[in-house]
Amino acid sequence: MAVARVWKSVRGLFRSIAVGAIRAYLGFALRTTRWTFRIDPQSYLYLTSQEGRTAVVVFWHEVLLLTPALWWWVERQNPAVHLRVLVSRNSDGRVIADVVAPWRIWSIAGSSNTRGKSKGGAAAMLRMRASLLHGCLVAITPDGPCGPRRQTQQGAEALARLVGKPVIPMGASCRAIRLKSWDKMFFPLPFGRGVFVSGAPLWPTPDCQKQDPAFNLQTHMNNLMEQAQVEQQHATAGHIALRPQVTCPSQIWNGVGALLAPVLPLYLRWRQSKGKEVAGRVREKMGFAACPRPSGKLLWFHAASVGEALSILPLVQACLRQNAHITILVTTGTVTASTIVAQRFAHDRVVHQFMPLDVPRWCQRFLNHWAPQAAVFTESELWPTVLGACHARNLPVVLVNGRMSASSFRFWQRVPGVAQRMLAPFAWVSARTEEDAQRLRSLGANSQLSPGDLKTAAPPLPVDAQVLADLRAVIGERPVFVAASTHAGEEEVIARAAHIIRQTYPNLLSIIVPRHPERGADIASRLNSAPRRAQNALPTERDAFWVCDTLGELGLFFKLGDCAFIGNSLPVCPGGGHNPFEPARLGCVVATGPRVQNFEEAYQALHECVQVVQDEQSLAAWVVRMLSCPEERAVLAHQAQAVATVNATMPDDLAHQILELIW
Known about the structure:
Residues 81-149 form the DUF374 domain. Keywords: Glycosyltransferase, Transferase. The chain is α/β, with parallel strands linked by helices. 44% of the residues lie in helices and 15% in strands. A 7-stranded mixed beta sheet has the order 1-9-6-2-5-3-4, with helices on both faces. Strands 12-11-10-13-14-15 form a 6-stranded parallel beta sheet, with helices on both faces.
């Protein structure tokens, strides 16, 4: 008896070592394989248990060792998913159950009764039925545990019929050795490529006496296996050919992000000390969430700065109108944009967070917490790490108002592999213009909607009617010139232009609205201590300038002004321009400097409605002309307003396309 106990202990020790070794190797091989998941949209709902959906997942016994990779992918989509796998009661089945158990893959032991011998099939059927009814996925190998190879038994169909659930057929392939077993099992090798392919959900007929030809599970599974093997072979061939272009640059980018991660928190704290980050929210830039994830479906919008945030406002509003059950997460990169979101996106189903920096671990942390059903990026926000993480999770990603400037295009052409890897998996891209669409297409964005600029579809900037009336009473009949979104260096030019204008209109009031409100104090000090809106100071009759260094009131100042100059466009600053449609929608005539490359198409659309000025003399001459000719000013304002509101239906059309991605 003592010898037997010792022998039993030794066998248990060897078994534990074997199970641990198998688990370690299998985890290493599967986690170093680059997986692609081709999941049918309807099957995605069941595989990720959206809204409590469950299904019977079937795959051939030969790919049993590959399936933990599918489970890891499913868990990333929905951490609340539970899985039960049917295994046989023999020693092989128990080893498999012990290997996968630490990965939260729980087993149900049992198989069909043969030759009158009970193998626990009836009890296993009852447990699987209970699991499906309580929200668990159930996975079955319909040709297991002993074959014949690739011939389905009736268990999967019978179980699905019993509980009224669909069957999801799966195929898989990867770089592997084929074992000399009855099923020719895949034994995965590390550092390869792999593919999982799902078919559409199959529903068995209620009448077990009738066989639906469309169900034919065996044919579906064989076809999916062939598809997976072909895709995996093509991916492997492409991987070898494209390795210098595709794999290396993206790995270098991710590696640089990982190396910089230890010092980036110090950089963020330094930015906070300069007022460029919000105290108490710096950790959001590292992927830490500031609030719990709301329950239900979540749609993620990312807009880097103020212009992008304002452009997606009508799109967010359209999504909220069309779906009363989703929550929208809006991420931004700048403090000013976060303020705009707080002011303009105020809604009980809108959550704001700062976008994490493009560091692999931070992006994964962000996605693990928020687990969105789809992501909407705006304009030129293309970050390889976060997009790669989205694509790896099979998360539908779209780009709206896609912009690709000439300089950005030249940059991405130098690393075409990285660009192609980012853009090719996009569900679709909606570019601003045909030129942007062509550039994005040449870099890999093949699925595109018709071009159109969301900035021409945005609603007018908000204006508080009572505040407007009060300010008009303070200003009286004075002519008003507005210089909006100005940058460093432009205020001096505007001050000299205002001096020239006052020779014709001595009571002129010039309102200066800096793009960055924190510059307000410095600007006011250089304009003879001009009153500042941020200090609730109002202009008196003696004040030639009024510095309006606040956020969210730009529409108010455009309504006050007789004419407006749009900054970041004069030769004295880096340039690029700002959105001219904002004043145009409010009936304000517009002038700009020559440097408007960031909004070139918008200015081309406005054409003769906008005056281009080079310096203080030409700016002053234009303002004097507009003040002297109210009829011409009214005609130009009307023409510009018509152009700026041409795409009024675009947000609803795009919202419909986006919501289709999350069913």
